[in-house]
């Protein structure tokens, strides 16, 4: 029985990057041997075990063959006879197909270290085209390592194009697609993820609404990428980045949210940005009634962070359009403070309840906003 550290942990160590998660591979062992050593089985499709002390995952070496459509259309075979090389070749990229034994010796049967040095994302074998999820994974790796100068090999991009044209991307579930999109959006250069999908034709299949921005006159598509890049540069959270990506999709935002089953926070902010972003640039010219409608819609009294997130997206949009005046944010914060300054308890003490209380609160908030706009 031989144990190897494999995949991302080896890759990132060679790149001089922090290593967070470690994947372990066991060659030459049976399920019974692993259990006898105290490892706890957790794998449903193939043998994966939890180390009795460290809690890390150890997988038995395995091979795979295509047996159906999509990401899950594979049959796995785990056996003590499966070699390290046979296990590694089923992986996606050469840089992810290296291993290191417990003594620190590197095993690199597919020249992953050379591709690391050349900054190339290269597929391992023609079997790469059997898994449509790899289109998104490669685009995500391109986004992660763009700052280091990595690019996708021309032959790999061609295989990604072939996968797209085969229709296999349609077999991906919303959950799997979203998991890759979410991770890609949180990379340092998420716009590269979109650029790679665009280059291989996958964007048209996955996000046709966004793809169409690149086909229309003007620079709408490139501006969206600039907005997303600014969001990453300002270390914005996931829901802000998602709203930045979808901000120019108009009425299609709802359909996109639903297609990927985006988290509720992402859906809500994207929808609000789509509906109200045009009011942001004109904030100082809005009348008190419209300001009140906006503040009510954002529920600033119970969820003040939503307005802050909305303004963050609008600031990223402004930067993407090379507009650097974001004084509207300060103006909207002032409006929110004026509306929130109305003391509801004072009206309750006057004996107001129910609808009468609601109308009185609204009237006083409107009055406060009228005073604010007339300063």
From TrEMBL:
Entry's EC annotation: 2.7.7.72
SUPFAM superfamilies noted in UniProt: Nucleotidyltransferase, Poly A polymerase C-terminal region-like
Cofactor: Mg(2+)
Binding site for ATP: 8, 11, 91, 137, 140
UniProt GO molecular function: CCA tRNA nucleotidyltransferase activity; hydrolase activity
Superkingdom per UniProt: Bacteria
Swiss-Prot/TrEMBL catalytic activity: a tRNA with a 3' CCA end + 2 CTP + ATP = a tRNA with a 3' CCACCA end + 3 diphosphate; a tRNA precursor + 2 CTP + ATP = a tRNA with a 3' CCA end + 3 diphosphate
Residue positions binding Mg(2+): 21, 23
Regions annotated as coiled coil: none
The tRNA nucleotidyltransferase/poly(A) polymerase RNA and SrmB- binding domain, residue ranges: 149-212
Keyword ATP-binding: yes
Similarity field: Belongs to the tRNA nucleotidyltransferase/poly(A) polymerase family. Bacterial CCA-adding enzyme type 2 subfamily.
Note: A single active site specifically recognizes both ATP and CTP and is responsible for their addition.
Function text: Catalyzes the addition and repair of the essential 3'-terminal CCA sequence in tRNAs without using a nucleic acid template. Adds these three nucleotides in the order of C, C, and A to the tRNA nucleotide-73, using CTP and ATP as substrates and producing inorganic pyrophosphate. tRNA 3'-terminal CCA addition is required both for tRNA processing and repair. Also involved in tRNA surveillance by mediating tandem CCA addition to generate a CCACCA at the 3' terminus of unstable tRNAs. While stable tRNAs receive only 3'-terminal CCA, unstable tRNAs are marked with CCACCA and rapidly degraded.
Protein name: CCA-adding enzyme
